[in-house]
């Protein structure tokens, strides 16, 4: 092979030949790329993904599409577009459970219709929707040596916060929560259960006045007013029923007003120095603190810039502060609330459950109407407990007759009853409404549960609260010693002049912000 | 076949789902400081569609309107006519689409567009022009554009342009004064594939209303169309003249040399 004469082992390449070849190839390549022959066709877009429900040909209806509108200035909820996957869950809960989104005519007027309940933030699978965070504001106050930072904790947070730290659903963590708050630097820890008792005293007194015909412009049925989402819902969709709303403020706002008046006075503290924080299972409370109707301390001291409440933390936000501080939450010692605004009855505690306000109110209203302790059934008022959407009960009150009550959670259920009230077909004297399904225990600011979200979780948290109430000696709001002390030393009498100034409010019709959709025939 | 979208601005609630759908489907960046929705929505290379929140007056009362904007996909797009590299083309379905492989980066399209739609990727070292493609790949599969499908109130209708125009006219007629009598995009810049209905004047909504009713390209078409004939004709003429003079000179010189030789 090696000697094959035909094989050219040494191909001569002349310099000229090589240059000709290279130049030729260059010219050919340049010419074909200029003419478009060598170009790789490229396009832009169409490179991402969309949820399966949107990948349908033609104009087939997409059942769950889009999302709810959120005002960039919404004080309660916020959305991060980068995390939104357009799953449509926010819309499902807002439209189907709360009947807000999609229940007004288009075009819109001048409002993003929102009741701030925050259920969308619980349903959102990617946490694109969250509460509008207040942690930075609270941090700044805690770091300010000129501020006395006072905190109050809502009834429902103490049966949910533990879940954030791996404890079973419905764990009772009242004591650990207090210790954690003290370790985080809060100067005083008060109990919203105390002001829930106060709400009951005021609201039951008001109910008694309405029942005995002294209600003035305020007719029956009396509607509860402690849920800010529900209140705004009435202002939007049932403005004609505003006179039915109890004028009593929510427990958070009563506590806020008292901290900057009663507590400031008693402790001889400048109200300007107080920074008042609440820990709530609720996002709506963040909206509530900015309502101008609620600036009682400002009017009391004649200092217009004072706010009754300065910041609201949700249960989730508190959990993240505790985790950030690296506190071993389950192992913390059990603290107790500070005196003066810290004692509470079982009636104040059960505010956290759907039906709780009703049961608590009945215990006190019975006493106010008859002078006697309420019958045992008012201490385990089974008909208003549980997770049925609309619960009804009647209690016969000697000398007055039957007291008809209804308890509602979820605003779709509220519409059914309110339409009856509006038509004059309701026999109820008193109706409790909570926006969130299950009441505050599954409020929009509560932790994602370790059990599947739904009634199982609600039942476990609810049971924990009822169990504590049952085990308590003090179970009626009017018997709370610190409440008695408050009236004796400061407020005078329930629904009296000062009580009215600090603890009651009025509401604004928001009917001009939307055109409600007429009920559709189904 | 020319696909089109009819957008009824009275149905927009400002949720911004369309902007998110656009970004998910086209893999566009969510940039800090460049929101696609709100009062300060930014139109840039990563926001192919924006929803601008506008507080306007209607019948003496304040109303909030949300204006979704994107490429209008003109019937005779100025961007396509100015692009000498053919990097902007009209797809079979009627979407005005961009071919980055053909683009030379001259940005004539950005100057040519009367609506200032095409944006440039200024932050990249080898930038492209960037604009809404009407989800050309998605509509080629028979689906609707991402933004249209994601709208919770059904404010957008995807279909043939003629059908959408008829639908728009029907809504105006049957709306009892609900809409202003103007279908934006019917005539603007010679007609666009996106059509808008509104109850408030479009100029109040910040939309470009000072555009002619003829295609932008038609302004220069009258004389620019003669460019090729003129050049080719000139070349032919001068070639012919050159041949003529050369031949004349040749004949002259050959005759002259014949005379010389006769004299000798």
Summarize the structure.
The complex is a heterodimer of chains A (about 525) and B (about 260). With about 525 residues, chain A is α/β, with parallel strands linked by helices.
Provide an overview of this structure.
The complex is a heterodimer of chains A (522) and B (264). Chain A has helices spanning 15-34, 89-97, 119-123, 135-143, 174-184, 192-211, 228-237, 251-266, 284-288, 296-301, 315-324, 346-349, 356-370, 411-423, 455-470, 481-491, 497-503; strands spanning 77-79, 129-131, 148-153, 188-191, 222-223, 274-280, 311-314, 390-397, 401-409, 430-434. Chain A has 522 residues and is an alpha/beta fold. Chain A has a four-stranded parallel sheet, sandwiched between helices. Chain A has a four-stranded mixed sheet with strand order 5-10-9-8, sandwiched between helices. In chain A, helix 6 (192-211) crosses helix 8 and helix 6 (192-211) crosses helix 13 (356-370). The longest helix of chain A has 20 residues, at 15-34. Chain A is elongated, with a radius of gyration of 31 Å. The termini of chain A are far apart. Chain B has 264 residues and is an alpha/beta fold. In chain B, a hairpin with an 8-residue loop joins strand 7 (119-120) and strand 8 (129-130). The longest helix of chain B has 37 residues, at 227-263. The model of chain B has no long low-confidence stretch (mean pLDDT 94). The chains are: A alpha/beta (522), B alpha/beta (264). Chains A and B meet through loops of A and helix 1, strand 2, strand 4, helix 4 and helix 5 of B.
Mean pLDDT of chain B: 94
Q: Please compute the radius of gyration of chain B using only Cα atoms.
A: 27 Å
**How would you sum up the major sheet of chain B?**
3 strands, mixed
State the share of residues found in helices of chain B, binned by percent: 25-40%
Question: What is the element layout, followed by pairings?
Answer:
The complex is a heterodimer of chains A (522) and B (264).
Chain A: H1 15-34, E1 77-79, H2 89-97, H3 119-123, E2 129-131, H4 135-143, E3 148-153, H5 174-184, E4 188-191, H6 192-211, E5 222-223, H7 228-237, H8 251-266, E6 274-280, H9 284-288, H10 296-301, E7 311-314, H11 315-324, H12 346-349, H13 356-370, E8 390-397, E9 401-409, H14 411-423, E10 430-434, H15 455-470, H16 481-491, H17 497-503
Parallel strand pairs in A: 3-4, 3-6, 5-10, 6-7, 9-10
Antiparallel strand pairs in A: 1-2, 8-9
Chain B: E1 3-8, H1 17-26, E2 37-38, E3 50-58, E4 61-69, H2 78-82, E5 88-90, E6 96-98, H3 108-112, E7 119-120, E8 129-130, H4 136-140, H5 146-150, E9 156-160, H6 161-174, E10 194-197, H7 218-224, H8 227-263
Parallel strand pairs in B: 1-10, 2-3
Antiparallel strand pairs in B: 1-9, 3-4, 5-6, 7-8
């Amino acid at each position: 092979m090696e000697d094959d004469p035909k094989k050219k082992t040494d191909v001569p390449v002349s310099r000229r030949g090589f240059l000709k070849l290279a130049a030729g190839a260059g010219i050919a390549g340049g010419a074909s790329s200029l003419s478009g022959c060598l170009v790789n066709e490229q396009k832009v877009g169409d490179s991402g993904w969309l949820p399966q429900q949107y990948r349908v040909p033609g104009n087939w209806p997409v059942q769950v599409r889009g999302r709810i509108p959120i005002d960039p200035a919404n004080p309660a909820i916020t959305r991060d577009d980068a995390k939104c996957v357009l799953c449509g869950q926010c819309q499902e809960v807002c439209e189907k459970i709360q009947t807000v989104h999609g229940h007004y005519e288009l075009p819109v007027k001048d409002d993003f219709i929102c009741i701030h309940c925050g259920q969308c933030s619980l349903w959102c699978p990617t946490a694109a929707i969250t509460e509008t965070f207040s942690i930075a504001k609270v941090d700044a106050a805690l770091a300010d040596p000129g501020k006395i930072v006072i905190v109050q904790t809502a009834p429902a947070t103490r049966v949910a916060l533990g879940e954030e730290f791996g404890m079973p659903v419905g764990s009772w963590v009242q004591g650990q929560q207090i210790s954690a708050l003290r370790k985080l630097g809060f100067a005083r820890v008060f109990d919203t259960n105390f002001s829930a008792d106060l709400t009951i005293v005021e609201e039951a007194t008001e109910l008694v006045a309405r029942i005995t015909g002294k209600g003035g412009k305020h007719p029956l049925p009396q509607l509860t007013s402690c849920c800010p989402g529900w209140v705004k819902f009435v202002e939007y969709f049932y403005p004609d029923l505003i006179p039915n709303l109890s004028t009593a403020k929510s427990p958070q706002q009563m506590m806020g007003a008292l901290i900057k008046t009663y507590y400031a006075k008693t402790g001889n503290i400048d109200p300007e120095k107080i920074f008042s924080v609440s820990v709530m299972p609720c996002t709506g409370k963040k909206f509530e603190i900015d309502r101008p109707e609620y600036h009682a301390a400002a009017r009391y001291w004649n200092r217009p810039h004072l706010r009754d409440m300065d910041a609201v933390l949700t249960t989730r936000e508190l959990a993240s502060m505790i985790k950030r501080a690296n506190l071993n939450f389950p192992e913390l010692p059990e603290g107790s609330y500070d005196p003066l605004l810290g004692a509470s009855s079982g009636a104040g505690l059960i505010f956290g459950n759907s039906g709780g306000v009703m049961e608590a109110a009945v215990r006190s209203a019975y006493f106010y109407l008859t002078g006697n302790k309420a019958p045992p059934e008012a201490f385990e008022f089974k008909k208003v407990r549980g997770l049925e959407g609309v619960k009804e009960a009647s209690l016969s009150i000697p000398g007055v007759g039957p007291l008809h009550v209804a308890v509602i959670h979820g605003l779709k259920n509220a519409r059914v009853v309110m339409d009856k009230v509006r038509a004059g077909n309701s026999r109820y004297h008193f109706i409790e409404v909570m926006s969130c399904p299950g009441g505050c225990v599954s409020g929009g600011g509560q932790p994602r549960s370790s059990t599947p979200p739904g009634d199982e979780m609600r039942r476990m948290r609810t049971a924990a609260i009822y169990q504590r109430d049952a085990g308590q000696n003090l179970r009626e709001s009017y018997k709370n010693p610190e409440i008695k002390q408050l009236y004796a030393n400061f407020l005078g009498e329930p629904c009296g002049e000062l009580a009215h100034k600090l603890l009651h409010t009025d509401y604004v019709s928001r009917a001009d912000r939307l055109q409600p959709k007429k009920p559709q025939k189904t | 076949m020319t696909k089109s979208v009819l957008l009824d601005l009275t149905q927009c609630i400002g949720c911004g789902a369309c902007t998110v759908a656009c970004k998910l489907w086209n893999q566009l960046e969510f940039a800090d400081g460049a929101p696609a929705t709100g009062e300060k929505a930014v139109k840039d290379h990563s926001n192919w569609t924006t929803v601008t929140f506008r507080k306007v007056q209607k019948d003496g009362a304040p109303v909030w309107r949300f204006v979704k904007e994107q490429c209008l996909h003109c019937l005779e797009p100025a961007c396509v006519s100015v692009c000498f590299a053919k990097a902007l083309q009209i797809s079979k379905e009627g979407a005005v689409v961009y071919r980055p492989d053909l683009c030379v980066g001259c940005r004539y399209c950005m100057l040519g567009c009367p609506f200032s739609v095409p944006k440039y990727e200024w932050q990249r070292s080898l930038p492209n022009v960037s604009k809404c493609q009407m989800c050309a790949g998605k509509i080629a599969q028979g689906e609707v554009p991402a933004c249209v499908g994601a709208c919770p109130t059904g404010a957008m209708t995807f279909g043939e342009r003629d059908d959408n125009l008829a639908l728009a006219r029907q809504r105006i007629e049957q709306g009892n004064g609900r809409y202003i009598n103007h279908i934006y995009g019917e005539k603007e810049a010679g007609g666009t594939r996106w059509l808008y209905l509104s109850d408030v004047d479009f100029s109040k909504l910040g939309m470009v209303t000072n555009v002619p009713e003829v295609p932008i390209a038609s302004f220069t078409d009258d004389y620019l169309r003669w460019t090729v004939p003129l050049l080719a004709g000139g070349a032919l003429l001068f070639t012919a003249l050159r041949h003529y003079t050369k031949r004349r000179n040749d004949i002259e010189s050959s005759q002259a040399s014949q005379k010389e030789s006769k004299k000798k």
